[in-house]
Amino acid sequence: MKAIVYTRFGPPDVLQAAEVAKPVATENQVLIKIYATTVVKEEPDMRASPGINGLFKPRHPILGQELAGEVEAVGSQVTRFKPGERVFGFVMFGAYAEYICLPEDGVLAIIPAHLSFEEAASIPNGALTALPFLRDKGNIQSGQSVLIYGASGSVGTAAVQLAKAFGARVTGVCSGANLELVRSLGADQVIDYTCEDFTRNGSTYDIIFDTVGKCPYSRCKESLTENGIYLTTVPSPGVLLSAIRPSRHGKKGLFLAAGLRPAKDKARDLEFLAGLIEAGKFKAVIDRQYPLEQMAEAHRYVAQGHKKGNVVIQVR
Known about the structure:
There is one protein chain. The chain is α/β, with parallel strands linked by helices. The protein is built from nine helices and 15 strands. Strand 8, helix 4 and strand 9 form a beta-alpha-beta unit.
């Protein structure tokens, strides 16, 4: 099968198309023919330098976290899926390829009927990050006032839609070029951070969710209500320290970052998201699409840090 591999860390050109062995499903696995994947913001960093994917060379030569495709075969013990079903899901590595094997109890769900493979592939990463932050950590409630900072990215566009689905009043903060996009996702108010500082407008929020790690708690604390909660996907050392100390700001100051969660919980969340999609309360946000052979160019674009929603790779 065809895959995009890399054997050393470096610039986008280290990503090369290659023929690799097609995987074979074991008794508890599902073999998926991949039609679409994405480039998430972490992957250019994994490609460029040592870190989560190894110190001296890549431990996993095939990147790729989000996928959508069709079940081609299942193992003898599999009962949850059957050949021919359209599925979408999330893995840590391996989706930059034509096929992948996932455990039956992995992060996998049936694609809603009207959704394309490209749309389905763009859902898991951002939404599976935003959902536990808002629902589980933030305990979001209907009628609350929620501010999403970085509202036009993968996590941000998901967070705006999820907050609205939970009945919140949503303010999205992004650049002027993305105001209409964020408004189209249901935001009640949009703020161009290049023109207005939301921390100086006198408004307060029950939840402030920094989806890009660029608006620290120290800047946001006076914009929280008395019981307000601050959430961030990129906690600074100061946030981590404050998380284990009693707050000095009344009832404010819950500094929270979602940790690793069991696959079964993510799979349930993916099914929950599929329900929102079918109900018309959540939609895919795609910035650009590239064929698999242009993976290096897709990495160059994502590394710039200005993508709107998701960048999709058409595998087939």
